[in-house]
Amino acid sequence: MKYENIKSIILTFLVALSLLLYYLLWTDQGENIEAISGSTMEQERIGQVKEVSQLVKPDRIYQHINGTHYGTISVEEIEDIIETLKGFSFGNFQNISSKIKSVSSFLKEQNDSLEIRFPGEVPFSMYKDLLNIEEDNSFDFDTILISYKANNENKAVVYFLSQTSKKVYESTVLATDINRLNAFKDNISGEQSTYLNYFSYSPNDQYLIYLPVNKVEVNKYKYFTREIESISLKKALFTDPSIAQKEIYTNWEEYTDDSGLLRIYKDTHIVSFFKPSGITYELSEKHIISNSIDLINQRGGWINDYLYVGRDDERKVTFRLYNTNGMPVFNLNTELSDIRLYWENNKAKRLITNNLVLTNTNTPFDFSKEKASSGEEVLNYLHNKKRLKKEKVQNIVLGYNMQVDSQNIVSLQPTWFYQYDNKWYQLYEDETGGKLDGLE
Amino acid sequence: MDWSKIKTIFIIAFLLLDVYLIYEYMQLKESQKAEDNTQEPIAKTLSRLDIKYNKENLPMNNQKDQYLSAKSKTFSAEEKTALEKELLKGQEVTIRDGIILQSVLKKPISVGDDFNPENLTDFLFNQVYKGSEYRFWEKKGNTITYYQHFGGKTLFRNLKGALTFNINEENKIVSYTQTYLENIKEMDEKEKIIQPLVVILSLFTKSYIDSDSYVSKVELGYYTQLDTSAQLLAPTWRVIVDDKDFYVNALDGEVIQPETEEMKVE
Question: What pTM did the predictor assign?
Fold first, then answer.
């Protein structure tokens, strides 16, 4: 009996000990788990994550057939053509820049061809992955020109050109590749065609600009917008949003921590985030453009449709808002329709964007058609400007002028813009009364 | 079934379980101990790298710290008049941008060839607005700079909490400019901060300093990379290595590079 009692005591003790040990193990581990989950904070997402292929895209296509130029900005057509190019077998890249005296006259000579234009200079090393090209090279281009003519070796020539930096690279594809483009030739005419007739204009020996022969019928648009809450922007941009301090000034709202400053301007809707030590530090060795895209993907994401439109001196990368119909959107006063990222020593120090979400892009209200000036009228206007130096003209495009009213309704007014000495200007802006914004 | 036999089986089973649990617990303690002991090897690593420092000069008793929030003080016209009548008698005061107080001394103060901050204490405490809250930083050319401190810790290089004296050729203070941060508040809960030896080693691993460097001073203070009027200041180590200043965020270990940081907001 006594022996049994001792056994009971031992058993009770062992049970109690196991409970105690289990408790100790559990609480100690608990702390560790908490510490880990605390350090992996997720950034708030306000827009979409986008791929390079969704942001680095051409914005216009020209087909040169029998001496006539047909052009379109149709998003679907551009998409289809790029999709077709992905199946091409590009090869034999050669730098022929030294043989070309003038890029614009070189372009002008290329009849029977398809021309793809990008709004900004694209590094080949980045774009080659999108076109499944294996050869690597280090040039930049803004135009791809594909000849419809096959040579006697059953190959056709494709040029990657940069009008901006006067470079021409030649490459070849198979004649069978070109045959797959033939279907697009039929799109230039017919009831459903999105193509218009263009004529070419070279203001200098560097740039060749295509302008519409006739007046262009385009819609104007009005969109409702929603403002992104400042709190969401704060959560998206700061590494530790909980410590950021809020301050309200007359014209803007401000959030600061010890290294970053977020300003949201009330009237202009401009959002600026400044962080001298760099907005993000986990960047790979990729190109500044892909890094910019990654960074915006990490810090909130993309709202509305933007395209990469260029970079200055390896320092500023710009993305511009594009309307659903493929036309670029400008606001020359505040640059509201651009997202800009400033880099210095491999660090993005400043991000400038806006806090407007266009809400009804599929069902805009006020959808009336307007007639914009023909290419000839545009040129007449430009040539009448006495101080304009032709050699500095780089591009002339029909885009939208974006205005935001007090109810946050965004209106897009078709307007002609020209790029001059690396800056965009609006046509007809100095004319009062009569014709407004190049419309009749 | 025999109750006695069941007890025996249970005793054996629990004995085994306990042995296992004790083993697990020892393992856990062991690994925690290893983490706590990292300070010792760091000192060894530093001596192996020939990075020298003065042990007595290392502040070891700062275990936890927190962010500070502060705002620039705006001086009103009434305040200016009141100050001129009382505290700042004998000084001609102007206010710039609402936040910068500029004062011209009617009777310049001699500071001598070898400036000793102690000689200025009397003037600072009795004739400068909140003068006791500033601490000597450096004398460079013909200016003497003071920065505000909070809880004994300097607000390093803070342009919104600075006091700068201008000296003429006769080594006399003729004027000064002042900015003042008010409403300084401690934020959040205190957090564990990175210890000085870890900071020194991180400067080496991030190749800011070479081996065989000499760390002359390590000091804890507060720093912001932005010169805004409402500020958030992070607890920051200032490490002086061979006469070069380094600032290291004491919470996340980020090194703020000397000279390259830009304060401009616009």
Answer: 0.81
